[in-house]
């Protein structure tokens, strides 16, 4: 691929705490992720996966090394640059994080609040369209308590993708789901990513869905390594 990486992680170190409590969590993490790829990150709990994901999503400041997302260097970047990156990233978390008091459509629409340039009728139409895309056309006006775990996670996918982000970061999106719902959720993400041409990085422990990945990387004790496809 002669393309520029969408995410270029180069010798990234990360520390939590200060003074004698300062603890290194990431050790020279290095990886490149290219446009349109679906990359899975596996690894034991506590190994640093979420930390790396939040660095890539510009939710946390990069301390050491270089992290370029969509061509922008995040280390030492001013906050307005970080905001630009966040606008181009959709997030899906393990717990769907839907607001209980809002309908499925209103939850999806929230993601477009960051985009005041889009007229409200378009916001409305696009949110409904996106819910249809994830198979929830009949649930547009339902509140989260009327939806199953898999349906709520599909609302979360619609919310992450409705702004047509260039990157989607998903942190254990299938952890709380049964096998079939988990597969449905990643397959929907895969289909939409191909349609929209976005790049997806999914953190998962779930080896039932690894076959959806184009490539797998593994985090262990803060060290990131490529996984040989032959043994994945
Ligand atoms: P994973 O997502 O792989 O389970 P995390 O990135 O959440 O790992 O955590 C890596 C390590 O960093 C763990 O030891 C965790 O306890 C620690 N850690 C995570 N977040 C913080 C924080 N905000 N402050 C201090 N330590 C943290
Ligand atoms: Mg985690």
Could you characterize what this model shows?
The protein is α/β, with parallel strands linked by helices. The chain has a domain at 94-164. Helices cover 30% and strands 25% of the residues. It contains six helices and ten strands, in the order βββαββαβαααβαβββ. The strands form two sheets. It has a six-stranded mixed β-sheet with strand order 6-7-8-3-9-10, with helices on both faces. Strands 2-1-4-5 form a four-stranded antiparallel β-sheet, with helices on one face. A hairpin with a 2-residue loop joins β9 (215-220) and β10 (223-226). The longest helix is centred in the C-terminal third of the chain and has 18 residues, at 179-196. It binds adenosine-5'-diphosphate and magnesium ion. The site of magnesium ion has 3 residues, from α1. Residues 16-17, 25, 43, 45-51 line the site of adenosine-5'-diphosphate (ADP).
List the helices and strands and how they pair.
Elements: E1 7-16, E2 23-33, E3 38-42, H1 49-56, E4 64-69, E5 72-73, H2 79-87, E6 89-92, H3 104-110, H4 120-133, H5 149-161, E7 167-171, H6 179-196, E8 199-203, E9 215-220, E10 223-226
Helix pairs in contact: 3-4, 3-5, 4-5, 5-6
The structure holds adenosine-5'-diphosphate and magnesium ion.
Residues 16-17, 25, 43, 45-51 line the site of adenosine-5'-diphosphate.
